[in-house]
Amino acid sequence: MKRLMAFLRGHRLWAGLAATLLPLVLLVWLQYRWLSRLEDMSTIAHRAALDNALDAIGNETRYFYLANAERLLNVPASIFIDAHLEEVVHLWEKRPIEGARLFVVDFTREPFGRYLSYEPVTHSLGTMLGGDEALAIIVAATPWQLVIRAGGTIRPVFDVNERDPDHRMILNPIVDPKGQLVGLAGMVLDEQYFRDVLLPQTIERTLAKLLPESRRDVVVSVRDTRGNDILPPPVNATGETVSRRIPFVFSDWTMTLHGGASAPERWARASFVVNMALALLVAAALAGGIFLTLRAADRAVALSQLKSEFVSNVSHELRTPLASIRVFAELLRLGRVTSPVKVQEYGDAIEGESRRLSRLVDNILDFSRIESGRKTYRFEPTDLRTVAAAALHSFDVRLRHDGFTVHVDSPPELPLVEADPEALGQALANLLDNAIKYSEDTRELRVRLGSSEGEVTVAVTDQGIGIARADHAKIFERFHRVGTGLVHDVKGSGLGLGIVAHIIAAHRGRVTVDSEPGRGSTFTIRLPAAGRPLPETA
Ligand code: ADP
Question: Looking at residue 531, what is its pLDDT?
Answer without folding.
Answer: 60
